[in-house]
Design brief:
The complex is a heterodimer.
Chain A (H helix, E strand, L loop, with lengths): L3 E4 L2 E5 L4 E7 L5 E7 L6 E6 L5 E4 L2 E5 L5 E6 L8 E8 L5 E3 L3 E6 L1
Parallel strand pairs in A: 2-11
Antiparallel strand pairs in A: 1-3, 3-8, 4-5, 4-9, 6-7, 7-8, 9-10, 9-11
Chain B lengths: L3 E4 L2 E4 L5 E7 L5 E7 L5 E9 L2 E4 L6 E3 L9 E3 L8 E8 L7 E2 L3 E5 L1
Parallel strand pairs in B: 2-11
Antiparallel strand pairs in B: 1-3, 3-8, 4-5, 4-9, 5-6, 7-8, 9-10, 9-11
Classes of the chains: A mainly beta, B mainly beta.
């Protein structure tokens, strides 16, 4: 079945350093979404990418969707302590299933 | 306010008992999902439904059952057949043509 793999599983950075998480799907995706889950909370939608090669920015966050629509990345520039949490990618199959990656947990040292 | 509500937030049950987790949404969403989250792991899909009276198994459906009799409601029953039911359960909803999924606050189930 469809699988969405995400790496790394954990990342510890010093405040001000950059951070990147990568997402790869075993099949072509119709779209990819990114979510953030704060400790003790529930996932909250960040953004959706639909087009091949698409790049979107939200302040210090940059999201990319690969040309083959099978991979994606989230890059955070100059991390802050407020960026702490687990970042998930999620791919939607053509049957409507929304499959999440394992997530990358980001710790930021002040 | 529109949203998706899960109840209860914490639930304790004895081993061998069935338990039903509630999920209600007033967002007029067609699609609803149930995920299980274990410590240090991602969200694993249990069941999903794209329309009333229809639902499909996800990746880890064994030991779970659902119903979708109303558009607003998608209850999940954790049966005694589920070998390791202690986990954090998250319900989500979205439009059928997915733009974003909205999650409930989650139910933390502990089986003792």
């Amino acid at each position: 079945g469809q699988q969405v793999m995400q790496i790394p599983q954990y990342q510890h950075v010093q405040e001000g350093e950059d951070f990147t998480t990568y997402c790869n799907s075993s099949t072509t995706l119709s779209n990819i979404q990114w979510y953030k889950q704060r400790p003790g909370g529930h996932p909250v939608f960040l953004i959706q990418l639909v087009k091949s090669g698409e790049v979107k920015k939200q302040k210090r966050l940059t999201f990319q969707f690969g040309e083959a629509k099978k991979n994606s990345s989230l890059h955070i520039t100059a991390t802050q302590t407020t960026d702490v949490g687990t970042y998930f990618c999620a791919g939607q199959s053509n049957t409507g299933k929304l499959i999440f990656g394992q997530g990358t947990t980001l710790q930021v040292k002040p | 306010d529109g949203g998706i509500t899960q109840s209860p937030k914490y639930l304790f049950r004895k081993e061998g008992q069935n338990v039903t987790l509630s999920c209600e949404q007033n967002l007029n969403h067609d699609a609803m999902y149930w995920y299980r989250q274990d410590p240090g792991q991602g969200l694993r899909l249990i069941y999903y439904s794209q329309i009333v009276n229809d639902f499909q198994k996800g990746d880890i459906a064994e030991g779970y059952s659902v119903s979708r009799e109303k558009k607003e409601s998608f209850p999940l029953t954790v049966t005694s057949a589920q070998k390791n039911p202690t986990a954090f359960y998250l319900c989500a909803s979205s439009t059928t043509r997915v733009t974003e999924a909205f999650f409930g606050q989650g139910t933390r189930l502990t089986v003792v």
